[in-house]
Write a structure and sequence with these properties.
- The structure is a single chain.
- With 372 residues, the protein is α/β, with parallel strands linked by helices.
- It is built from nine helices and 25 strands.
- Strands 12-14-15-16-17-18-19 form a seven-stranded parallel β-sheet.
- The radius of gyration is 20 Å and the shape is globular.
- The two termini are 15 Å apart.
- The model has no long low-confidence stretch (mean pLDDT 96).
Length: 372
């Protein structure tokens, strides 16, 4: 197959005019008579990777439901997100074990839809004061043994775990597990020094920057300032037009650079659904337009998928090449799968998205086959 006529994303040069070819499931330098797709007037980008979303189309990872997980995978692929690392909520260990086992079975059985490349354990090792939409009754102090049990149940799928570094034993936890899983600073009251200690102990990411953490001020830079001073760290950014002001989105890209920004959607089960009342981690959420809130007004995740978040970032003034890098390249690097996905280099999987001039999805190719 040959995709021709479009402006093709290149990690080093932005967008260039060239063909994208694949033979079966892999990208190749050239192709023979396998067909042709005319992408004239369009953008050709690698399929995206979402490392932090909870659900969509009425389903949620925390349900531990095989059919729901498949619904999520199929919807995400239809939106040009070919690799998913869905996030769990703060739940009791037995529920989290079920979530992990369901995900492992999904992966083992090779079910249809986007590739399940990991699990993101956003809870339960979080601060009560900054719990946000997490259930405070089920929070747990950092526990390496518990994490190891969950990792075993998930059969290697746990790629990210969130932790509030001010909690008792948190720094020891980070030192113990950071060789085996990416640790992300999250839902925290930590100041600059405590956050810096967490990054030096092995943490290398921040969960939804600015949300559920102290602000970034001139005398108290907090988690944001500590992450900025640690060049090995990446920061997640929800760009749905609700969580972060456009000016702050632009500032984050300028401060951290697109190589350190990981665009995420943080969607809940209402993504792709109508307005109404939904469940998130055992709590009732009201959705109206792009806004999802708990009864007390707390923002409770997003209803905007990652492709739409990327488009929103561009509408805020982020260059398209930078937005693509943050939605396709950086997430794949963050969870260690960039060797096989995330760019349009030969030898990688033929997971390719064609966007029209308005950045709406026009075609999706998955492992070499057109699925949209």
């Amino acid at each position: 197959m040959r995709i021709s006529g479009g402006k093709v994303f290149d990690l080093d040069r932005g967008f260039v005019e060239r063909d994208v070819c694949f033979d079966g499931p892999l990208l190749v330098p050239d192709s023979g008579d396998g067909g042709r797709y005319d992408a004239s007037g369009c953008y050709v980008i690698p399929a995206l990777t979402d490392v932090h979303f909870h659900g969509c189309r009425g389903a949620d990872l925390s349900d531990g439901d095989p059919e729901g997980l498949q619904t999520m995978a199929q919807y995400e692929l239809s939106r040009g997100v070919a690799q998913i690392c869905p996030a769990g909520m703060t739940l009791l260990e037995d529920r989290l074990m079920q979530v992990c086992r369901t995900a492992a079975a999904h992966r083992r059985e090779g079910r249809p839809g986007a590739d399940l490349v990991g699990i993101n354990l956003e809870g339960p090792f979080l601060s009560y004061a900054k719990r946000g939409a997490q259930n405070g009754d089920w929070l747990h102090e950092p526990d390496a043994a518990m994490l190891r049990r969950l990792m075993e149940a998930a059969e290697g799928l746990v790629k990210l775990v969130s932790v509030a570094p001010e909690l008792p034993g948190a720094l020891e936890f980070i030192k113990e597990v950071s060789e085996d899983v990416a640790v992300s600073v999250a839902h925290t009251t930590a100041d600059y020094d405590t956050s810096l200690a967490a990054f030096r102990a092995g943490a290398r990411q921040v969960t939804h920057l600015f949300n559920a953490m102290p602000g970034f001020t001139h005398r108290a830079p907090g988690v944001v300032g500590a992450a900025l001073d640690c060049p090995w760290s990446r920061v997640e950014l929800i760009c749905d037009g609700v969580h972060i002001h456009p000016s702050v989105v632009r500032a984050v890209f300028k401060m951290f650079g697109p190589g350190r920004v990981v665009l995420i959607s943080d969607t809940m089960r209402a993504a792709g659904m109508t307005d109404g009342t939904y469940d998130l981690g055992g709590q009732e959420v009201t959705v109206k337009g792009p806004l999802a809130t708990l009864a007390n007004g707390t923002i409770a995740g997003s209803v905007t998928d990652l492709m739409a978040c990327m488009k929103t970032a561009v509408s805020f003034g982020v260059p398209l090449a930078d937005a693509v890098r943050s939605a396709a390249v950086s997430p794949a690097q963050a969870i260690g799968i960039f060797d096989r996905v995330g760019s349009l280099d030969s030898g990688k999987r033929a997971n390719v998205v064609v966007l029209d001039r308005e950045l709406d999805v026009k075609a999706v190719f998955f492992k070499g086959a057109q699925v949209v």
